[in-house]
Amino acid sequence: MPSYADFYRQSIDQRDTFWAEQAQLIDWQTPPRQICDYSNPPFAKWFVGGTTNLCHNAIDRHLKDRASQPALVAISTETDTERSYSFAELHAEVQRMAAVLQSLGVKKGDRVLIYMPMIAEAAFAMLACVRIGALHSVVFGGFASGSLASRIEDAEPVAIVSADAGSRGGKSVPYKPLLDEAIALSKHKPTAVLMVDRGLAPMAMRAGRDHDWAALRAQHLNAAVPCEWVESTHPSYTLYTSGTTGKPKGVQRDTGGYTVALAASMKHIFDAQAGQTYFATSDIGWVVGHSYIIYGPLIAGMTTIMYEGLPTRPDAGVWWSIVEKYKVTHMFSAPTAVRVLKKHDASWLQKYDVSTLKALWLAGEPLDEPTAQWISDALSVPIIDNYWQTETGWPILTLANGVEQQTTRFGSPGKAMYGYNVKLIDESNGEELTAPNQKGVVAIEGPLPPGCMQTVWRDDERFVNTYWKSIPGRLIYSTFDWGIRDADGYHFILGRTDDVINVAGHRLGTREIEESISSHPNIAEVAVVGVADSLKGQVAMAFAVPRDASGLVDDAARLKLEGEVMKQVDSQLGAVARPARVYFVTVLPKTRSGKLLRRALQAVAERRDPGDLTTMDDPVALQQVKDLVGS
Ligand code: AMP
């Protein structure tokens, strides 16, 4: 066994040898000719000349040895159902879905947008797409019609797969009206819409365009759809994420690099074995859902659990009862979920036998020490923080316990993972900070390792300009996070360098929320900032200047307008983006040159010292904010 330090060094110093070895973890139809082509930086091509298929590696490859082992268990505490599919059954379902998609005109390279709750059919749809070489673009079910429409327009899907409704806290959330509205709003129209009817909400079906999954599935019960062998660099999917500008970016992922990266992460990071059980509590609308609900565990031959429901319903023991029942070995969740559980008695977690758990991995937002300590005491299993992004597809910082057991340090997501040449950069001059405990921008020297984004969907220029040109004088990938590294190589993440906020692990662009709010007829101008919150990590807070404030005579009138603004955000972006408060002001704090003083606004909203304000135009602006938030 090499030490992790040696393993890491090899991944950087002998990059191609290292990844050639990792490439052996998956099946190739044609082996790669070249490991990494980085002749056109920052565009990296991994495993050039190789052909493979993601679905083959996730399912077909395991049929020989584990056809009857459960591959996917879909549990819903919303509908009180548990459906289990062996690898053989999953193989059959995915082929049926693939045949249905083909019958609707989907071909290799086409996009299929998936707007679904956490049900097994969502997994079938994702796997069916990559089986036939089509690209899926999953949109989180909590997003509303405006967000959905912008993604439909950008991805230009041939088909959309959706369901009548999701369910949350026992209440059904109809999807079809939002979907119809989004299609109406979008300039691009899909040719086919495939609806899974769960019997939760009525659906208006449009003849010729909308199709019923159950009816078409019945026509393709014995479908045999072979895997389409695609080039390693063939895109497997796009997944939209928020950045500084209003328009979400389609993160585009390849096939071969992603499959190898996930297979390697299952071995080295998760120390996972085929036959074990993985339970990630995320949603397929997020990157964790892609990598560690669907692809990673299946590639490793594990059973994966998909969960629809809350962590506290019917009670706070529900996840741990699943761990006991299915002998879960690997669990992956988010700090927010733990903070929700923390409001309940720890005895709920101790009611069940969780001794099968090797560890609980947490990611998506900063894991504060008290939360880590609480869950560690409650569960008595190792708690492992991991830091990464939609863009990277797998952890940048964590512990690679499959290589060498390392100790968790609460407050730190851990060490740089193999393949990631992580640097801390002085933002002012682009120089690397090598001494310990210095604060810099967390950056990654190219090439990004396999599995990371190839580019922004149909926008190479945006990929280069957004991620690789933000640090003066060097072509280096910026994560847009501040960080420090201690003398032992443990990193600490200190927050975003840009205008992105993280609400309960959901990444939101403040500009996106601002755009939605300013489209209200009575809002002239608005600033949205992220404010620290003990449950959600951060919440969005809006400060808006009304066009006509004459009606805002009392609290009732202000609350009415606040309610209208919130409703507008709900209907355009979804409740995830709804600000916790909308405060009305007469002027926003700006510099004399008209630049919004976001940091100062955020500081005051968090009741902190706003710092140097010498460039501020009108001091009244911040005073109003102070009065409103009571700081
Ligand atoms: P997303 O692309 O939605 O996964 O969001 C990625 C961003 O979430 C990162 O750039 C960080 O700002 C934040 N993030 C993710 N994981 C962690 C973590 N373990 N600790 C601190 N911040 C995190």
From TrEMBL:
Annotated AMP-binding enzyme C-terminal domain residues: 512-595
GO terms (BP aspect): propionate catabolic process, 2-methylcitrate cycle
Domain Acetyl-coenzyme A synthetase N-terminal: from-to ranges: 4-58
Annotated keywords: ATP-binding, Ligase, Nucleotide-binding
One matching Pfam family: AMP-binding
Source species, domain of life: Bacteria
GO molecular function: ATP binding; propionate-CoA ligase activity
Domain AMP-dependent synthetase/ligase: 64-447
InterPro entries associated with the record: ACAS_N, AMP-bd_C, AMP-bd_C_sf, AMP-dep_synth/lig_dom, ANL_N_sf, Propion_PrpE
Gene3D superfamilies in alphabetical order: 3.30.300.30, N-terminal domain of ligase-like (3.40.50.12780)
Family: Belongs to the ATP-dependent AMP-binding enzyme family.
UniProt name for this protein: Propionate--CoA ligase
